[in-house]
Predict the structure.
Amino acid sequence: MPVRRTFLVAALALLSGGALFSGGVLAHHGWGSYDSNTVLTLDGTVAEIDPNNPHGELKLKTADKLWIVTLSPPSRMAARGKPLSEIKVGDKVVAVGYPSRSRPDEMRAERVTHNGFTVELR
């Protein structure tokens, strides 16, 4: 009987841990919160940079609004020829991507152009 109970407790622990892990992964990699039917092109000046993983962010000041631009992981940007460290506050950037469905000031960038170089982020 103790063996059965131990097995049952171990099985429940694995299942609950797996459910938590997969939920976290799905939550992180789910892009359903962005409207992929609407493409935005933002042309503005970098007001702030957050290079932290898993996704870097820019705050981009356009003519009428301050946007949060969610980028790809910094390592991907670097691998594709545009390390985030090359972008500085005050630089001009064009970001093309999808608006957030829940945050009216956020977009997920698919590509970024900086100093004449365009990097595809996805």
The two ends are 53 Å apart (CA to CA). Residues 46 and 91 are 6 Å apart (CA to CA). The first strand starts at residue 40 and ends at 50. Helices lie at 2-29, 74-79.
